[in-house]
Amino acid sequence: xxxxxxxxxxxxxxxxxxxxxxxxxxxxxxxxxxxxxxxxxxxxxxxxxxxxxxxxxxxxxxxxxxxxxxxxxxxxxxxxxxxxxxxxxxxxxxxxxxxxxxxxxxxxxxxxxxxxxxxxxxxxxxxxxxxxxxxxxxxxxxxxxxxxxxxxxxxxxxxxxxxxxxxxxxxxxxxxxxxxxxxxxxxxxxxxxxxxxxxxxxxxxxxxxxxxxxxxxxxxxxxxxxxxxxxxxxxxxxxxxxxxxxxxxxxxxxxxxxxxxxxxxxxxxxxxxxxxxxxxxxxxxxxxxxxxxxxxxxxxxxxxxxxxxxxxxxxxxxxxxxxxxxxxxxxxxxxxxxxxxxxxxxxxxxxxxxxxxxxxxxxxxxxxxxxxxxxxxxxx
Amino acid sequence: xxxxxxxxxxxxxxxxxxxxxxxxxxxxxxxxxxxxxxxxxxxxxxxxxxxxxxxxxxxxxxxxxxxxxxxxxxxxxxxxxxxxxxxxxxxxxxxxxxxxxxxxxxxxxxxxxxxxxxxxxxxxxxxxxxxxxxxxxxxxxxxxxxxxxxxxxxxxxxxxxxxxxxxxxxxxxxxxxxxxxxxxxxxxxxxxxxxxxxxxxxxxxxxxxxxxxxxxxxxxxxxxxxxxxxxxxxxxxxxx
Lengths: 380, 240
Known about the structure:
The complex is a heterodimer.
Chain A: H1 2-11, H2 13-44, H3 46-50, E1 56-59, H4 75-81, E2 86-101, E3 106-114, E4 126-129, E5 139-143, H5 144-150, E6 161-164, E7 167-175, E8 186-190, H6 191-198, E9 207-212, H7 218-229, E10 232-235, H8 236-250, H9 253-282, H10 284-292, H11 297-333, H12 344-371
Parallel strand pairs in A: 3-8, 5-7
Antiparallel strand pairs in A: 1-9, 1-10, 2-3, 2-6, 2-9, 4-7, 5-8, 6-7
Chain B: E1 6-19, E2 22-35, E3 39-43, H1 50-57, E4 65-70, E5 73-74, H2 80-90, E6 91-94, H3 106-110, H4 112-116, H5 121-134, H6 150-162, E7 168-172, H7 180-194, E8 200-204, E9 216-221, E10 224-230, H8 234-239
Parallel strand pairs in B: 3-8, 3-9, 6-7, 7-8
Antiparallel strand pairs in B: 1-2, 1-4, 4-5, 9-10
Helix pairs in contact in B: 6-7
């Protein structure tokens, strides 16, 4: 009877399209908003995720997330290096400063200072130039979006000169650094340069990036560092979640997105539920006739569920396609929207939610079909 | 020992429905036999219990007491699932409102009982087409119900009732929605195509114009069979 169920569904074009639209709209809204939310949250931890060589981040015990800096003395670097299981440990500077361009423009930037010798912590993908160029005097690497933000009319290129705290800095590389939570350009330079760019003080080291020796458990290493130095040490993953968790707890972002996602769910469930209920109600007499003719309740149940699943499948495919298309287009429209994409986890989660919507939508209808008296067909 | 000449045997059938705080009995101990190979009409005023009785005979309503046998099979003693399976194989239905599925063609609608029994829709529609052609619907096989006249829709419904060669065909007011000419044609087709030595046809009707097609007429009143008369009986000629 599956073919018959599908023909009944396709026979009522208006409701069929209405049902698919409802699911597609709901899917699009939910997946889009959750993806943007996930993208925003990942942006908060962009600099952690870009420093892929670091297994453990070490910081002042009062630091809660990556943008909250409580500088440490350089002496702490030696203490961390002395902990058993540490393969190498390098200083990492993170701060904000203002860049002045030669045409008189000024721009707040995120300044990241990496170890002079190893250049550990620079975003791995470079669009132009090479990381090694950073060893040149006054060298800096800027992210592509930051370059376009500062020089919107120009193609990214090397050799541009900016002034940071009265110090000259030359662009020797263009990186593809992860988009930060703010729209500020992300600038990499040597640790020693960074200290000059912000003005020297007694305590300037923001973090110590640690790489574990092969075979060493990084969680245990982090605990050991904390125990032996009194500093906070978190694995890169834990620090990422700590940073995301801070924004989740301390900002209204989750609530705002949560409301939109809930609206998507409620609108989807209401529109689809009502349309499906009416669709089934209008076919109740036909279902009654089928029951009278000996079609079992189980078969009718499968027919209605098949109709629901087909509508859910097509609606979901359209909705998720629209969502993916949205991110594809927006990433081309503006570089500042880079990094927003449809993660597979969101696609899967939305699929499960759509399944819940369609089950809720079918439930009332199914009950109606199950209890319909086949004798209904004998009533003119 | 089952009498093979009797297609349907109703013994002491009663049926009560809840009404207010109590129950109201609408069928009062009906004993009624429907012979095989005959077209039996069930007539009577509205509310006399015709539809209730035919629903019980068709196995879609359970009597409060009494027994129904169809070709020797004790319908009232079957489980619900067995009753559904029995209906699927042994009972054909023709309804007043046709109850064709609007999205299916005439051939596909007529094929429903075969599809319900597990045959693929396309193959079942092929089998149904043979019957539709036999009853003059050959030119309308691929038409949807809304493209057919009332008489043509009822003919598609007749084909649907016949396609799985059931032992009993139950018709509820099959001519009520048709004009006189279309009603006559439908009954002619029903008699010609449906009647077989091992099959009984029961027609519930108010339409006195079709009494002449009956082999037997059972008249009901207040939940009881008042009289059962054969074709030669005066009632038929009076009705005609």
